[in-house]
Design brief:
- The complex is a heterodimer of chains A (about 500) and B (about 150).
- Chain A is α+β, with helices and mostly antiparallel strands.
- Chain A has three domains: about 210 residues, Four Helix Bundle (Hemerythrin (Met), subunit A); about 110 residues, Signal transduction histidine kinase, dimerisation/phosphotransfer (DHp) domain (Helix Hairpins); about 160 residues, Histidine kinase-like ATPase, C-terminal domain (Heat Shock Protein 90, 2-Layer Sandwich).
- Chain A has 13 helices and seven strands.
- In chain A, the strands form two sheets. A five-stranded mixed β-sheet of chain A has the order 2-4-5-7-6.
- In chain A, a hairpin with a 2-residue loop joins strand 4 and strand 5.
- Chain A is rod-shaped and about 200 Å long.
- Chain A starts with 7 loop residues before the first helix and ends with a helix.
- Chain B has a single domain, classed as Allene oxide cyclase-like (AOC barrel-like).
- Chain B has one helix and eight strands, in the order H-E-E-E-E-E-E-E-E.
- About 5% of the residues of chain B have low confidence.
- The chains are: A alpha+beta (about 500), B mainly beta (about 150).
- At the A-B interface, helix 3, helix 4 and helix 5 of A face helix 1, strand 6 and strand 7 of B.
């Protein structure tokens, strides 16, 4: 089954959608790049905030240390002020830092550990040392205490340092990532725009190839068709509606060509009919004039002159024969007319064929001395059901033709036989035969082939009337002929006893 | 502040217990810090020679060890014996009995409020450890200290 191609409308929608998706993709990529830049800026700002908060927290730790040292060294409680202030502000500062680094798990962990260490410093060292210093400054200022202080503070400072370094690294990484994404987005955006331009160009070319060119071809073909070149056809392999258009155009051209051929055939038939009518007029005038001239001539002789009885009788015989010939001609014309109008009435009697053949042979036997008529029929009866006179007319026509078209004389065989329920009658002559190119027209009314030129009389109605009569009896008529070798015309009619045989 | 101290101590104790009850290895295989609190339950000075503090006097300290973050009960005890080398200064040896082993310390101290000993070794989980322990007094009566062991292997 031929696969129907996608309609142009669907292709156009698809291509437009594709371009739309491409535009959307480029837009999304650019949007992502801008978003990345904004994210990098936000990240940078947050890193600044983290740095500020970290430094503030470090200052609080150093304030705690300064407060502890100041008090341990001097014993003056005023030196505890930075420690007290730092202790008060420490939770808030830690929370703030924790909030700022909440998005980064690694930094969150660092801040958590740093906070823990600061709290340890406060709870395990600073506060106990201050308490010790209040009773024993020497113990609080012992080398062990100082070393512990240094150790704890160094550890805290290291953690601050790591936190800041990591934050700087994250900011740098974020900025680098943003740069990379921006560069990638720029490349993708430019590439996308180029691809978009290419896609639109390809779409334009596609439209030109798929629509404009086929339409031009259709227009050209239509122009040539209008100029009379009805054989013009288009290649039907177009997409969708173009395919439909070319197929419709070809169907239209096909119809036009067929209509013209039919018109030409009808015209030819009309010309042929006109020619046949002219020929008919000629034939009728000739065929009627000849016997009429004889009738008029012999009648005039008989009226103007006195002849002996024998001569007068002979002339009257000629007049009678020619009048009968005129009557037969008129009967042929009337039969042809009746057949044409479907008004031929047939009897449905049982007709014995063998006597009919013998009778017709006897009638024609006396018409030509150069021909020898033979009749060959089986002993058993050959009966058909039909109109005896019309069947006699058919046999007579065939015998007449056999004699007429055997101008050199010869044997005319009349054969009747029963071929398994079909009565077949054949009339075989040794005459001129029928040329191959005329055989297809032999049953056409008024067709006489080369007969007129050969001086053979006739109207060209005999065979046409015979065929109508035979077919009206449910039979067939046909012939076999070879030029200069003679012809055999045959008639096949259903046997009258066939039904009885079949039933019996 | 008291709560904060407790929290820190609890965390230290938790770490200690995690190390102490860790079923994996028989001995510590990585550095670590253990923080516990102590409560002095016995303190006695054996005066030798002339009355008053002086060289030769022997000080005996017995403490209970706590990790209040995990349990209010004592998780072990500590025994420290010091020999005075001067009026205040003394040289001490001590052993802290923890659930999964003992830690042996030694060192000199002048003020009991804040001093640092060396960790010499131990048994059980701590049989291969070294490092230091810092002792900070948080309350004098009853004396409570914070012990911070910084252990290396």
């Amino acid at each position: 089954m031929k696969r129907r191609s996608l309609p142009l409308a669907a292709r156009t929608v698809f291509a437009t959608g594709l371009v739309g998706v491409l535009v959307g993709s480029v837009f999304v990529v650019m949007l992502l790049a801008v978003s990345a830049l904004r994210e990098a800026e936000r990240r940078e700002a947050r890193s600044r905030d983290v740095t500020v908060s970290t430094l503030a927290l470090e200052k609080l730790v150093l304030d705690m240390q300064a407060g502890v040292r100041g008090f341990v060294i001097t014993g003056d409680k005023r030196f505890q002020t930075p420690l007290i202030t730092a202790q008060r502000e420490l939770p808030q500062a830690l929370d703030e830092l924790q909030r700022l680094v909440a998005e980064s798990p690694s930094q969150r962990k660092r801040v958590r550990l740093l906070g823990q260490e600061i709290r340890d410093y406060r709870d395990v060292y600073a506060i106990p040392i201050v308490n010790i210093a209040e009773t024993n400054r020497a113990a609080a200022g012992s080398p062990a205490a100082v070393a512990e202080d240094k150790r704890l503070i160094d550890s805290i400072r290291m953690k601050f340092s790591h936190l800041l370094d990591a934050e700087e690294g994250l900011a740098s990484q974020s900025a680098q990532s943003a740069d990379e994404r921006w560069t990638a987005a720029l490349v993708l955006g430019i590439g996308g725009l180029i691809a978009l331009a290419a896609a639109m160009l390809a779409f334009g070319v596609y439209l030109a190839r798929s629509i404009a060119r086929p339409v031009r071809e259709v227009a050209g073909a239509a122009t040539r068709l209008a100029d009379g070149h009805l054989e013009e056809r288009l290649n039907e392999g177009g997409p969708g509606e173009i395919g439909d258009l070319t197929r419709a155009f070809n169907a239209m051209a096909e119809n036009l060509q067929r209509s013209r051929q039919e018109l030409e055939a009808q015209n030819e038939q009309l010309r042929e009919s006109e020619r046949m009518k002219s020929e008919l007029v000629s034939i009728v005038s000739h065929e009627l004039r000849t016997p009429l001239a004889s009738v008029l001539g012999f009648t005039s002789l008989l009226l103007t002159r006195d002849f002996d009885e024998e001569t007068r009788h002979r002339y009257l015989g000629i007049i009678d024969a020619q009048a009968r010939r005129l009557g037969a001609l008129i009967d042929d014309f009337l039969d042809a007319r009746r057949l044409e109008q479907g008004r031929l009435e047939l009897g449905r009697d049982r007709v014995e064929v063998a006597p009919l053949l013998r009778e017709q042979a006897e009638l024609f036997r006396g018409q030509s001395e150069r021909h020898r008529l033979t009749v060959e029929v089986p002993r058993k009866p050959l009966a058909v059901r039909g109109d005896r006179d019309r069947l006699a007319q058919v046999i007579g026509n065939l015998l007449s033709n056999a004699i007429k078209y055997s101008p050199e004389g010869g044997v005319v065989e009349l054969v009747g036989e029963d071929d398994d329920g079909v009565i077949r009658v054949a009339v075989r002559d040794q005459g001129v035969g029928i040329p191959d190119d005329q055989q297809s027209q032999i049953f056409t009314r008024f067709f006489r082939g080369d007969a007129a030129a050969s001086g053979i009389g006739g109207t060209g109605l005999g065979l046409a009337v015979s065929r109508e009569i035979v077919e009206a009896h449910g039979g067939r008529i046909g012939f076999n002929s070879a030029e200069r070798e003679g012809s055999t015309f045959w008639v096949e009619l259903p046997a009258a006893d066939r039904r009885k045989k079949e039933n019996g | 502040m008291k709560r904060t101290v407790k929290f820190g101590v609890s965390l230290g104790g938790l770490a200690l217990l995690m190390v102490a009850f860790a079923p994996a290895s028989p001995a510590l295989d990585h550095p670590g810090t253990i923080r516990i609190t102590t409560r002095e339950v016995a303190h006695r000075v054996m005066d030798q020679g002339r009355p008053g503090r002086g060289p030769g006097d022997i000080e005996i300290i017995r403490t209970l060890l706590y990790n209040k973050g995990l349990t209010p009960r004592a998780i072990g005890h500590g025994e420290v014996v010091c020999t005075f080398t001067g009026r205040r200064s003394r040289v001490c040896n001590g052993t802290y009995f923890l659930p999964r082993g003992k830690i042996v310390v030694a060192g000199a101290l002048v003020f009991r409020q804040f001093y640092e000993f060396a960790v010499l070794g131990g048994t059980g989980l701590y049989n291969n450890v070294q490092g230091s322990v810092t002792v900070t007094t948080t309350t004098p009566k009853p004396r409570r200290d914070i012990l911070t062991f910084r252990l290396v292997v």
